[in-house]
């Protein structure tokens, strides 16, 4: 009888809350509100432990309609 191995892995896009963003007018819903600053990245996990992250970018998200404005460093 041979050895049997199993691996638990995951892959996907994750978002991390970075705090309050700028006050701006949304180009989609035309409301002026404070936006939320987020970091979005791809992540690979092995046995529920993050192993690698790539394609990092910072975004601001409208709190009313969810429109995003990318790469606001």
Percentage of residues in helical conformation: under 10%
Mean pLDDT: 93
The helix/strand series, from N terminus to C terminus, equals EEEE
Discrete helix count? 0
Residue fraction in strands: over 45%
Give me the secondary-structure category. mainly beta
Radius of gyration, Cα only, in angstroms? 18 Å
Biggest sheet descriptor? 4 strands, antiparallel
Distance between the termini: 56 Å
Oligomer: single chain
For the record, the count of structural domains works out to 1
Q: What is the 3D shape?
A: elongated
How many distinct beta strands? Answer: 4
pLDDT < 50 runs, ≥5 residues = none
Strand order of the largest sheet: 1-2-3-4
Domain Zinc-ribbon: 25-71
Organism: Mycolicibacterium smegmatis (strain ATCC 700084 / mc(2)155)
Protein name: Zinc-ribbon 15 domain-containing protein
